[in-house]
Amino acid sequence: MKQLTSAQIRQMYLDFFKTKGHDIMPSAPLVPKDDPTLLWINSGVATMKKYFDGSVVPKNHRMTSSQKSIRTNDIENVGHTARHHTLFEMLGNFSIGDYFKKEAITWAWELLTSPDWYAIEPEKLYVTVYPKDTDAKRIWLEEVGLPEDHIVEMEDNFWDIGEGPSGPDSEIFFDRGQEFSDVAEDDPENYPGGENERYLEIWNIVFSQFNHKPDGTYEDLPHKNIDTGMGLERVVSVFQHAKTNFETDLFLPIIDKTAELSAGKHYGDDATADVSFKVIADHARAVTFAIGDGALPSNEGRGYVIRRLIRRAVMHGQKLGINGAFLYQLVPVVGKIMESAYPEVLRDAEYIQKVIRMEEDRFQETLKDGVAMLDDLIAKTKEAGQSVLPGKPVFKLYDTYGFPFELTEEYANDAGLTVAKDEFDAEMQAQKDRARAARSSAKSMGVQNALLTDITTPSEYVGYSKLACDGILEDIIFEDELVDSLAAGQKAQVIFDKTPFYAEMGGQVADTGFIKNAEGKTVAQVEDVQHAPNGQNMHTIMALADMTKKSSYRLEVNVERHDKVKKNHTATHLLDQALRDVLGSHTHQAGSLVEPTYLRFDFTNLGAVTEEQLAKVEAIVNEKIWANMAVETVVTDLESAKKMGAIALFDDKYGDEVRVVKAGDYSMEFCGGNHVNNTNELGLFKIVSESGVGAGVRRIEAVTSKEAYEFLEGRNHLLQEAAAQMKVAQIKEVPNKVQALQAQIKELEATKQALEDKFASQEAKSVFENVQTIGTYSLIASQVNVSGMSQLRQLADQWKSQGLSDVLVLATAVDGKVNLIAAVQDEAVKAGLKAGDLIKTIAPLVGGGGGGRPNMAQAGGKKPEGIDQALAKASEWLAEK
């Protein structure tokens, strides 16, 4: 076996399959594109779903990749096991209806054992097969020459994720020797596929040959596929003779840097510290790549995952004696390790560090709140005479504040308490169940449609140069069958040998229009156009008259609608570049929609865009419109386009020939859509709204041309209405009039407040005279006639300064709503009375709830009729103390 670095192992895998006719596919971003079923890209095959289910036929049916992936369903195991990670790379080779078992197995063996490649000793390799898969076993025996005692039949060697492609699989194991095993030589689990550390699974080859149908039955796939996966981290540990994945060149530099930042800790000296080193190394990789691919910390979805990983790493940093922000310092280390495959990490390191540093600093504040909550929980548990912290609030500490269970347990032990681990585990399981339910369809694929994938009729799109043409009707799909004719009133999908209709792609909506016969009569309406699996433009039509296959028809695009769409598409390109100019190069497109009447553009950004920034973006786009810049399309090869500096959006896969759209010397992007000839055709650009749509993703909606004029005219009409209501002669006088009215309102509010304060002071005289003695305490409890909570707080301040009683409860009702306030003097608080406890007791009686500090609390409610009962309840509460 050769001595190889992780970079060499990755590249050698890709190079090998390139010699076998595979296209090397770039690693897709971790944030899935056009796949709402996935939170993250979680495997190599996740990026191939459209090929496996037949919705798209690839240009090359053989593909290979090293795909970065994230899985977070059991984060808490990271650091405690030898090979558990949140971020990992999956090496894979894929066949879409091309080669099958023989090639997949023999090529795997060649790569692993050939002296020209990995050169692993054949005697150290074992495989498992599905018992009913006699073909795979035969190939391993006869074609590869593997001894029968190196083949193990296992019932669970069947890859099935529900509806869609499925089939048997064959796993390859490497024998690391009994010295690596954690079981005895004669243990029944000491075999390839058993629960042991000796035989390490390094590769899984899935023979995708069945459709798992919705009714639970299986049928042969029309086109059989190969899907393989080799975990890079695992196989690197084999080549580098590492006990775990963490003692490899993928992790050790991060661990070493963490040790430098720690308080004299070193990896390998202490098992507990080693867990923290592993957690930090793993999480540093995951958050670096996730943020680099456009995700940002937040309280939901993938943003919550990033936040949790950062907080977990910070907590483990504290265990190593690292008290300040440190995780961001590991980003360049991660970038250097991965530079050969992912140079963008070092390129974007400054931005990634900024995001992580901000989150680390924010967590320091949250941590203080969490410690206070834990201290309060410990105090309450002791006050109640209990010795066990309940699991539910402990889980909240873990889930909300990032406190690992072990840390809470340590705090509890210091206080002489234990933690209800079973209750904590139940809460953890409930959360996992909820997450699993939310991901129920995350791995599923559609069932292959052989009818569509088998349609290979050539079809040419001519819409770049003309919006009407004659075309031969080549294929008609009606009710999932190929037919030769259509009758009036039938809806179907049709393919012509040529078409001017644009198929929806890249955010641009499809063209609509009409189909006419030789006599000029309209025989169908085109309602939608999508790409068929083999790339043809497939039109959804409503037939208005009989139509027949192989007949010639006139295809006419709705020109007015098409022109509006292309104006908005060009505006999208200008907006994209203007956002980069104003917000920074880290900003990139996260989605778009180009309609006839508006455009929608999603982009990544740390926070909201300010009004000043929006105005600047809008001004830049309009300047480019009025600069009369020519919009040109250059058709060239992929490498030349990249050298030109064209921006590639998302993780789009481009062919050998690409289209680059240039707006003067300002904007240049890969794009297959339709555009104007000159920016002046847009006329005007106006941003209508800017909002957040997810963690770190903002959305701009904008209009151009006629719609921009109509939007501004609508705003002008509103201003005219406002001017009329304010009785000013000209619109330009409106701001001054508004300022004068605001000053007048402020003056009236001050007068009103003064009168209310005077009235409240008079009210206090009669209220404060009514002091009740209840047990050893004194109480003032009364309903007062004031305007709201502000006056109640003022009365409470007067009461406190004069020391009129131990406890105060006041209520007022305004417009059917109740305000309650409770206050306790400091000496009474020391004696154990808490205003927060009192308000929680009485608030339900007025149909509300509330809380606050021990010396003052407040509540609101919707039942004024319950005020008397609430005041009486306050007396009862105090009597019990």
From TrEMBL:
Zn(2+) binds at residues 569, 573, 671, 675. InterPro entries: aa-tRNA-synth_II/BPL/LPL, Ala-tRNA-lgiase_IIc, Ala-tRNA-ligase_IIc_anticod-bd, Ala-tRNA-synth_IIc_core, Ala-tRNA-synth_IIc_N, Ala-tRNA_ligase, Ala_tRNA_ligase_euk/bac, DHHA1_dom. One of its GO terms (cellular component) is cytosol. Binds 1 zinc ion per subunit. Gene3D superfamilies: 2.40.30.130, 3.10.310.40, 3.30.54.20, 6.10.250.550, Bira Bifunctional Protein, Domain 2 (3.30.930.10), Threonyl-trna Synthetase, Chain A, domain 2 (3.30.980.10). Signal peptide: none annotated. It is found in: Cytoplasm. It catalyses: tRNA(Ala) + L-alanine + ATP = L-alanyl-tRNA(Ala) + AMP + diphosphate. Residues 731-765 form a coiled coil. Residues 4-714 form the Alanyl-transfer RNA synthetases family profile domain. Its cofactor is Zn(2+). Its main location: cytoplasm. Keywords: Aminoacyl-tRNA synthetase, ATP-binding, Coiled coil, Cytoplasm, Ligase, Metal-binding, Nucleotide-binding, Protein biosynthesis, RNA-binding, tRNA-binding, Zinc. GO terms for molecular function: alanine-tRNA ligase activity; aminoacyl-tRNA deacylase activity; ATP binding; catalytic activity, acting on a protein; transferase activity; tRNA binding; zinc ion binding. GO terms for biological process: alanyl-tRNA aminoacylation. Its EC number is 6.1.1.7. It is an enzyme of class 6 (ligase). Catalyzes the attachment of alanine to tRNA(Ala) in a two-step reaction: alanine is first activated by ATP to form Ala-AMP and then transferred to the acceptor end of tRNA(Ala). Also edits incorrectly charged Ser-tRNA(Ala) and Gly-tRNA(Ala) via its editing domain. Consists of three domains; the N-terminal catalytic domain, the editing domain and the C-terminal C-Ala domain. The editing domain removes incorrectly charged amino acids, while the C-Ala domain, along with tRNA(Ala), serves as a bridge to cooperatively bring together the editing and aminoacylation centers thus stimulating deacylation of misacylated tRNAs. Belongs to the class-II aminoacyl-tRNA synthetase family. This is Alanine--tRNA ligase. It comes from Ligilactobacillus equi DPC 6820. The gene is alaS.
